[in-house]
């Protein structure tokens, strides 16, 4: 646990916590972006360059913009304040605590926990490409098919429909 | 330079209804994101700040943060003009980022590396006297042209300056900015333009290498900045020559023409990779590009039917 890790973790947690608690929807997305950038920096700290940069490219460059667009198209400027806590917050909090407990139990009981962490090896892009094209080629192709289906679905939805009878 | 110092002394006006924090952060994020890309651009032999093995990905990731900054600027001003400008800018930048990235993927395929240093090194070899610049190959020339058009749109310059269209929405997303914050936006626009030009040089024009082997005595950084100067001049020349596009023309160009051409270019570079070296390879690949290019542009021209424009939303 280095100082860098602590700073990045604090930044990520603060960003995501703000994303849940701020009242303005656009502010929430911007705070979430801070959290996502924090995640990307954590990946970079682990020498995972490709994953870190892809995280920024996809989440900051596409997902955050998409979310912002969706809010603007549907809700105006997103300036309608809403209460930060819903009435059933304790149910959600309970579920979150249970999920966290299960994940923590699974991670702590893993045999790798006792080992001393070594310096993470640098994964090059070539290695990732090899893995995707050889060992994981079927999952990747299935993902591609799924995305193509989603793309066609979006085009079908956006096509101008036939004139409806008034 | 004097303008920059002058803008420091100007009053910094913030609209009363503006979202003060976001309004302040937007130009800062924009300039930081524009500066980040320079880290992976080799400006001369062994002259690079950070030789990352996924350098190109880093460049595009840094560039994608600009879009968010543009949106923050437009939204936080709480002004209709700036919001419209931001919507236009973000839609345009997302649309043109896809051809921009796909046009550079051909180079990654040919070199087999994402590192900008490896890309330049692959082009800095000589066949007799001529360098192996990718712009001398059919797919490289196509990729270069598509890349430059997309780069022009990405940096919101004329003829793609709809987000700033002075005659329609005054200045777009940074209309409510004054003083030094406005200067920061201006700085970021030019930084972005120079960075994408430098990337185009790195990808297609051989980076710092000389075009002919007997010109190798000129220092590498001089070659780089000479090329940069030519490209920037071309940008300014184009800006002064062409009128602004319409919104539907802008989107049509990106999605109907540039996206299919960049995807087709990927196939062409694959064919190039597996054919034997020689004139035949060059001619086959050139034909593979010119014929679809003609067919596509002819098809798009026929599709266009001139009629009275109907406004669906603006009446």
| Poorly predicted sequence stretches spanning 5 or more consecutive residues of chain B | none
Measured by residues with Cβ under 8 Å of the partner chain's Cβ, the largest interface is:
A-B, 23 and 26 residues
The biggest beta sheet of chain A is recorded as:
none
- Determine the N-to-C terminus distance of chain B: 45 Å
Global Rg of chain A = 21 Å
| β-strand amount of chain B | under 5%
Bulk shape of chain B: globular
Structural class of chain B: mainly alpha
How many helices of chain A does DSSP assign? 6
Calculate the terminal CA-CA distance of chain A, rounded to whole Å. Answer: 66 Å
Strand content of chain A: under 5%
Taken from the alpha-carbon principal axes, the silhouette of chain A is globular
Radius of gyration of chain B: 21 Å
What does this structure look like?
The complex is a heterodimer of chains A (166) and B (315). With 166 residues, chain A is mainly alpha-helical. Chain A has six helices and no strands. Chain A has helices at 3-21, 25-45, 49-75, 89-108, 125-133, 137-158. In chain A, helix 1 (3-21) runs antiparallel to helix 2. The N and C termini of chain A lie far apart (66 Å). Chain B is an all-alpha fold and 315 residues long. Chain B is built from eleven helices and two strands, in the order H-H-H-H-H-E-E-H-H-H-H-H-H. Chain B has a two-stranded antiparallel sheet with strand order 1-2. In chain B, helix 2 (20-36) packs antiparallel against helix 3 (55-76), helix 3 (55-76) runs antiparallel to helix 4 and helix 10 (247-274) packs antiparallel against helix 11 (279-303). The mean pLDDT of chain B is 80.
């Amino acid at each position: 646990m280095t100082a860098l890790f602590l700073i990045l973790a604090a930044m990520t947690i603060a960003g995501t916590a703000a994303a849940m608690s701020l009242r303005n929807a656009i502010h929430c997305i911007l705070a979430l972006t801070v959290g996502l950038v924090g995640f990307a920096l954590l990946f970079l700290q682990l020498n995972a360059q490709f994953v870190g940069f892809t995280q920024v490219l996809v989440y900051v460059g596409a997902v955050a913009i998409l979310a912002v667009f969706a809010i603007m198209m549907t809700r105006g400027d997103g300036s309608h304040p809403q209460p930060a806590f819903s009435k059933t917050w304790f149910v959600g909090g309970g579920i979150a605590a249970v999920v966290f407990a299960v994940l923590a139990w699974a991670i702590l009981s893993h045999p790798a926990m006792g080992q001393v962490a070594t310096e993470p090896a640098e994964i090059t892009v070539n290695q990732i490409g090899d893995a995707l094209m050889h060992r994981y080629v079927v999952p990747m192709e299935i993902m591609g098919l799924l995305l193509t289906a989603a793309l066609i679905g979006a085009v079908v939805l956006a096509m101008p429909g036939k004139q409806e009878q008034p | 330079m004097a303008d920059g110092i002058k803008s420091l002394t100007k009053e910094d006006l913030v609209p009363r209804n503006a979202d003060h924090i976001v309004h302040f952060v937007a130009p800062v994020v924009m300039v930081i994101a524009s500066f980040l890309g320079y880290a992976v651009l080799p400006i001369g032999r062994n002259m690079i700040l950070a030789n990352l093995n996924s350098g190109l990905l880093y460049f595009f990731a840094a560039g994608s943060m600009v879009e968010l900054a543009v949106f923050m600027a437009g939204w936080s001003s709480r002004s209709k003009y700036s919001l419209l400008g931001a919507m236009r800018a973000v839609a345009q930048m997302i649309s043109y980022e896809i051809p921009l990235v796909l046009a550079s993927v051909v180079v990654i395929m040919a070199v087999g590396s994402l590192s900008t240093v490896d890309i330049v090194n692959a082009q800095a070899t000589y066949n007799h006297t001529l360098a192996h610049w990718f712009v001398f190959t059919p797919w490289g020339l196509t990729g270069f042209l598509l890349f430059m058009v997309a780069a022009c749109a990405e940096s919101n310059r004329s003829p793609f300056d709809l987000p700033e269209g002075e005659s329609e929405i005054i200045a777009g997303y940074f209309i409510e900015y004054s003083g030094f914050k406005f200067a920061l936006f201006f700085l970021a626009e030019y930084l972005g333009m120079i960075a994408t030009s430098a990337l185009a040089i790195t990808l297609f024009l051989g980076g710092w290498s000389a075009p002919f082997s007997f010109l190798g005595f000129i220092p590498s950084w001089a070659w780089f900045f000479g090329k940069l100067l030519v490209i920037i001049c071309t940008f300014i020349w184009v800006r002064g020559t062409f009128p602004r596009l319409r919104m539907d023309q802008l989107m049509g160009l990106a999605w109907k023409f540039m996206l299919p051409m960049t995807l087709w270019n990927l196939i062409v570079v694959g064919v190039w990779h597996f054919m034997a070296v020689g004139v035949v390879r060059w001619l086959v690949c050139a034909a593979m590009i010119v014929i679809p290019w003609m067919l596509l542009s002819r098809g798009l021209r026929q599709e266009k039917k001139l009629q009275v424009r109907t406004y669906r939303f603006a009446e």
